[in-house]
Write a structure and sequence with these properties.
Elements (H helix, E strand, L loop, with lengths): L2 H12 L14 E2 L3 H10 L3 H4 L3 H7 L4 H6 L14 H16 L4 E2 L1 H14 L1 H10 L2 E4 L7 H11 L5 E4 L17 H9 L8 E2 L4 H14 L7 E2 L9 E7 L2 H17 L8 E5 L3 H14 L3 E4 L1 H7 L2 H15 L3 H15 L8 H20 L5 H15 L1 H7 L8 H18 L4 H9 L3 E6 H4 L4 E6 L14 H13 L1 E10 L1 E3 L6 E3 L6 H9 L4 E3 L16
Parallel strand pairs: 1-2, 3-4, 5-6, 7-12, 7-15, 8-10, 8-11, 9-10, 11-12
Antiparallel strand pairs: 13-14
Helix pairs in contact: 1-7, 7-9, 11-23, 12-13, 15-16, 15-17, 16-19, 17-18, 18-20, 20-21
Length: 550
């Protein structure tokens, strides 16, 4: 579970264990707009109730109020008397969003705070947690926020559970979202943790590991340097920095490189990933068009990644694959346990074969229905809803906390239908649409943040430029960490591109690009022996015979 899913599950199951002052309505509404609206929320506070005056409210301001005050501290009972205007505003906002609004208005950070208060206030809930979980594995721990950490300590600090926190401070790229500095030392102190340092890089080729040493030393001079694994010892690694005169030349050459790797080196499209610091549509649109001209599919996966890992989407796609293919072991290994769990069937039940037959028969009928369904969202959505009715909608929602409240279940089903219809319009049949939706033959494109935890044979980082890493002046360490994350996704090859001119992010006009702010990143690659290549497009030979076109 993510921290958010864990928190939401606790709130949805044990909401009545909260003190009435912080107990949201049963059908609360998820709202993700609070931070942007904080000024308006503050302005709307009933100052007469808490003796706040208009000048007092104006003195608070809203810059950083959401994170630095509203969500900064655990909720406490009894509610203490406010000692400042800011504290009074915080309490009034909680009261308004949780109790006055009907339904209550919550976002995931608020849910995290409510879950922490619930565990703190309810001895029975705390004991149930301790009895349930003997082991707690905390992944990507370097990006833990104060809300996540408070929840962890309240739930497990005095339990017998064995906690393992795994992560790498050099990959801490969520500071903008509140990731805590020094979190590993704090965890060590609070939980008496033993420290284990992993020194073998099992992902990257030796040459890439060698270059990573320079990046690691820049981020933490005292850090031990990893070694490459024996199984990668034979692998040749490659790192290049290519400077292009313009974005169109960049696009054509990148497409040629990708085509060569697929056609000549035997790479699959999903072995190659295009990364950007942000706004991948902006930086890679010319490349996707150049790839399409070579019959190579690619797509931005930022939003799709989240949808494709949703349990609802996973189950729907597995049912569809069996319906369209007849047999699919991987899909069956998803469908069977999902059906048995939702129906409360013991897999060892002697009648299990009968239940399996009902799945097979349902999928056969589903295949006929689907093949007769046109590529229209309002026609496909009832088909997907029918799959879930067969599975057991309420049981499935109860098994997955994120679907118990609000509209997320319906939104996920609708998004899956819409994406499948879009894929069907670009393909010859529903099976091809399924492959297209899952990205089976597409080069993935994503931001660095979405690449966390993933790996690819070849990484192409598009736009190593000041305008892309515009936050470097303000947060050079975090941006260098992002640079390290991008580099460390690669198994064998990393290529960084720079374009002398590129369309502006807010206008189609070409803008000169610079790298003055991020020159230290280029310096690190240079220190590692990576030389810049200035690419010049090869002009076609002169055509002396106008009757013979090139």
């Amino acid at each position: 579970l993510t921290f958010d899913a864990f928190s939401k599950g606790m709130l949805d199951r044990f909401r009545n264990g909260l003190p009435v002052e912080f107990r949201p309505s049963q059908e609360y509404q998820l709202n993700f707009d609070f931070e942007r609206r904080m000024r308006r929320l503050l302005d709307a506070l009933p100052s007469s109730d808490n003796k706040l005056t208009i000048p007092d409210m104006m003195s608070i301001g809203d810059r950083g109020f959401y994170r630095d005050h509203f969500l900064a501290s655990p909720l406490a009972m009894p509610v203490p008397a406010p000692s400042s205007v800011t504290e009074a505003a915080v309490q009034e906002l909680w009261k308004r969003l949780v109790r006055t609004e009907q339904p209550s208005q919550l976002d995931f950070p608020m849910i995290g705070r409510l879950a922490e208060l619930l565990i703190h206030q309810s001895k029975s809930v705390l004991n149930a947690l301790h009895a349930t979980y003997a082991f707690v594995f905390l992944d990507e721990f370097q990006d833990t926020t104060n809300i996540h950490y408070d929840l962890t300590t309240t739930a497990f600090q005095n339990s017998t559970a064995i906690l393992t926190a795994v992560g790498d401070d050099k990959q801490r790229i969520m500071g903008w979202a509140g990731a805590l500095q020094g979190i590993f030392q704090q965890f060590k102190n609070d939980f008496g943790a033993n420290v284990e340092t992993l020194l073998i890089n099992h992902r990257s080729a030796p040459e890439l590991v060698r270059i990573q040493h320079h990046l690691i030393h820049a981020l933490d001079p005292a850090a031990p340097m990893p070694e490459h694994s024996e199984e990668k010892a034979h692998m040749a690694g490659e790192c290049r920095v290519i400077i292009y005169p313009d974005h169109e030349t960049e696009a054509r050459h990148v497409a040629e490189l990708v085509a060569g790797w697929i056609q000549n080196d035997g790479l699959h499209p999903r072995d190659i990933c295009l990364l950007t610091r942000q706004t991948p549509d902006h930086y890679t649109k010319p490349i996707t068009e150049a790839l399409r001209a070579k019959s190579i599919k690619s797509r931005v996966e930022n939003d799709l990644q989240d949808l494709l890992v949703e349990p609802l989407t996973v189950v729907l796609l597995a049912f569809l694959r069996i319906a369209l293919m007849g047999r699919s072991p991987d899909a069956w290994n998803t469908v069977r346990p999902a059906f048995f769990d939702a129906q409360g069937i013991d897999p060892e039940d002697p009648k299990a074969a009968l239940y399996e037959r009902s799945i097979t028969e349902h999928c056969a009928a589903l295949g006929e229905t689907l093949n007769a369904t046109p590529a229209e969202e309002d026609r496909l959505r009832p088909v997907l809803a029918g799959i879930m009715e067969f599975l057991g909608v309420e049981s499935f929602r109860n098994l997955h906390p994120q679907y118990r409240r609000g509209e997320f279940y319906g939104e996920t089903l609708a998004s899956s239908a819409r994406r499948l219809v879009d894929a069907r319009k670009e393909t010859a049949n529903w099976l091809e649409a399924l492959d297209h939706f899952e990205g089976a033959d597409s080069v993935p494109i994503m931001t660095i943040h979405k690449s966390k935890g993933l790996e690819y044979h070849t990484i192409l980082f598009i736009g190593l430029e000041d305008s892309a890493l515009w936050g470097f002046r303000r947060a050079p360490v975090e941006e260098t960490c992002a640079f390290f994350v991008a580099f460390s996704r690669a198994i064998a090859r990393v290529i960084f591109t720079f374009s002398e001119v590129r369309p502006g992010r807010r206008t189609a006009n070409l803008e000169n690009q610079s790298r003055d702010s991020i020159d230290s990143l280029y310096g690190l690659l240079s220190q590692a022996g990576v030389k810049e290549e200035h690419f010049q497009a090869v002009s076609p030979p002169p055509n002396d015979d106008p009757d013979i076109p090139f």
